[in-house]
């Protein structure tokens, strides 16, 4: 069983984390035996207030959780009218979060981002000299955050081996199904998509 840690923060985009949570949570559901993934959420503070006021109680605080095999950083956020950053635009400058990601990313098997979660990864240095994508409205921000990254605006997700990034919001579902396929085989991913009635995930 692989431990999947999904990072949460205030103003997070709901589908950014909920889509992957659902994919990893139901993968292998019909095969019986031990589930292939143990999915949990992690946040610096609790509760987390997501977009549109959804309140979430994370499973763990930082440094209270098992070492993740898969570390997933969602997105969501922007700037208020006065220029103050919120959501991922704030967390990408949060040294506590950046240090936490660096510490747990090194021993992890996979590091994933959804949407503007790539901006947070970029600030850790984990996207240096790699290819990546993000939300279509954040491509320039990704280039600015990581000048050595090859930004792929036309890709739904980009696989660098250990680091995989996805485009915005719903693209996190496709990326997560791709990861299930990569780790467990295409039949497992197809079964997961079938159970979710998600048509059709192999679009990249």
From TrEMBL:
Source superkingdom: Bacteria
Record-linked CDD domains: GATase1_PfpI_2
InterPro entries listed in its UniProt record: Class_I_gatase-like, DJ-1/PfpI, INH-QAR
One Pfam assignment: DJ-1_PfpI
Residue ranges of domain DJ-1/PfpI in the record: 3-180
Name of the protein this chain belongs to: DJ-1/PfpI family protein
């Amino acid at each position: 069983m692989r431990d999947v840690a999904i990072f949460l923060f205030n103003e997070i985009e709901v589908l950014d984390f909920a889509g992957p949570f659902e994919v990893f949570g139901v993968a292998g559901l019909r095969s019986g035996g031990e589930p292939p993934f143990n999915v949990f959420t992690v946040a610096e503070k609790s509760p987390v207030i997501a977009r549109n006021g959804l309140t979430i109680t994370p499973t763990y605080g930082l440094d209270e959780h098992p070492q993740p095999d898969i570390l997933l950083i969602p997105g969501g956020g922007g700037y208020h009218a006065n220029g103050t950053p919120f959501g991922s635009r704030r967390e990408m400058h949060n040294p506590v979060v950046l240090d936490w990601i660096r510490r747990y990313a090194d021993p992890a098997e996979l590091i994933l981002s959804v949407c503007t979660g790539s901006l947070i990864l970029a600030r850790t240095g984990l996207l240096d000299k790699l290819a990546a994508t993000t939300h279509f409205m954040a491509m320039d921000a990704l280039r600015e955050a990581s000048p050595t990254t090859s930004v792929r605006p036309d890709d739904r997700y980009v696989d660098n081996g250990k680091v995989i990034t996805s485009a915005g919001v719903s693209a996190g579902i496709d990326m997560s199904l791709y990861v299930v396929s990569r780790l467990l085989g295409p039949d497992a991913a197809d079964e997961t998509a079938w159970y979710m009635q998600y048509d059709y995930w192999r679009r990249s």
